[in-house]
Amino acid sequence: QVQLVESGGGLVQAGGSLRLSCAASGSIYRINDMGWYRQAPGNQRDLVARITSTGSTDYADSVKGRFTISRDNAKNTMYLQMDSLKPEDTAVYYCNNAIDLGMSGRYDYWGQGTQVTVSS
To answer: CA nearest 42: which of 86, 92, 80?
Structure first.
């Protein structure tokens, strides 16, 4: 069984920084694409940033230049460094991993979500 555990959310003032982590555990053969999504109340869940197994990255226009996604394959962990935070970044942030379980197949997994609140 695979589990994703997120950490690092919290309350921060506008202009501040936070670093989110997402650690995967379980019977993992390989993690392919990894991504961060966010969902504000009343809104759909949107992609924030993603990183491929080879390190290629992609960002939502709203966070380009402020957020940085990275991964540590040895630790099965993904990070999101969030700088110059704005009130509109307030949301629940979810991590998503496309995980290869070997003979058991490939599946998408989600973390439980971590709240990020940016005060003005």
So the answer is: 92
Using one digit for the tens of pLDDT, what is the confidence trace for 48-94? 999 999 999 999 999 999 999 999 999 999 999 999 999 999 999 99
> For the segment 90-109, what is each residue's pLDDT rounded down to a tens digit?
999 999 999 999 988 999 99
CA 9 to CA 20: how far, in whole Å? Answer: 6
Q: 61 CB contacts (<8 Å, ≥6 apart)?
A: none
Calculate ∠ Cα 23-29-31, nearest 5°: 50
Residue with tokens 């197994």: 53
CA–CA dist 42, 78 (Å, integer): 27
